[in-house]
Amino acid sequence: MTNPQVGFIGLGNMGGPMAANLLAAGMSVKAFDLSESALATLTAKGATAAGSAAQAASDVDILISMLPAGRHVSALYLGSPGEHDGAGAEGLLAQLDSRTVVIDCSTIDAETAQAVGHAANQAGIRFLDAPVSGGVAAATAGTLAFMCGGDAATFATAQPVLGAMGRASFHAGPAGAGQVAKACNNMLLAIHMLGTSEALAMGERHGLDPRVLSEIMLASSGRNWSLEVYNPWPEVQENSAASNDYQGGFRTDLMVKDLGLAMDVAATAGIDNAMGKLAAKLYEAHKADGNAELDFSSVLQRYLG
Asked: How many domains does the chain divide into?
């Protein structure tokens, strides 16, 4: 699909930079967001402003959504009386042209993604659930990783658009599989961030320099993404959230949300994910201590009090 016409709904911390990268790649973007300032920021970069979600979805080849939760995605596509989301009570699937490929990049529960995917299939509309990994920095840099659920042909069709926003995309399986993959990934991320924080705090209390200890573990079997790319100790990495007073990045309240989704995935699979449950408990406590808006790597502070 060359130079597709793209509709984009949801221009928050992730959606705004993602849509901007589509514009930078030379694609035409028609966008909608309830925030007038977010919409104005994108139109200043060349996007066309839509007055509603339905208008953003009209006469486009690709429709991308990036919304906060499953209930918003369900209301947008399936409809929900009383929801004022701009789609109307019947939902967008009842209004879309059958040529439109729908890509929902929201991080939501797998059941909602499956329900929307099934309804799209019944309506003859191609659909991918495609949650992302990488956070705001990767959304801005265009280096996100997409975890996609849907049929293989739709995944192949979406590649030019996904490639303009990310460095990698993976076909995880049928509708909902992208959400399962994201839940597994973020549960593991929470676990190794907690473990990294504990290890660094232990070493520092025994007089080790956290920077030197990080180098030791990076060259040893404890090496992991949190240690290498997103070190939670301030000033170890110049551009990390930890070195910016834990501002920006991936907020603690969003990690709590994602761990809740992971608990649902584990429960429906009959998995006793003891490590995931402990991570959820620790992050919930960290959020309750007033750290909801700080980056999730700020969990290090729990070990330094």
From this structure: 2
Q: Is 182 a catalytic residue?
A: yes
Residue 87 clears pLDDT 50, i.e. is over it? no
Choose one of 121, 150, 175: the last residue of a domain.
175
57 with 85: CB under 8 angstroms? no
Q: How does residue 3 score in pLDDT terms, banded at 50, 70 and 90? A: confident
Nearest to 183 by CA among 255, 261, 114: 261
d(CA 272, CA 44): 49
User: What is the domain-level CATH number for residue 89?
Assistant: 3.40.50.720
Residues 168 and 189 in one domain: no
Q: Is the pTM of this model over 0.90?
A: yes
Residue 281 C-beta-side C-alpha neighbours within 13 Å: 6
Which one from 30, 45, 182, 277 is the annotated catalytic residue?
A: 182
Give the domain extent around 291: 181-303
Find out whether 8 and 22 touch, Cβ atoms under 8 Å: yes
Residues 6+ apart with CB under 8 A from 36: none
Are residues 134 and 193 both part of a single domain? no
Helices 274-286 + 252-269 axis angle, to 10:
150
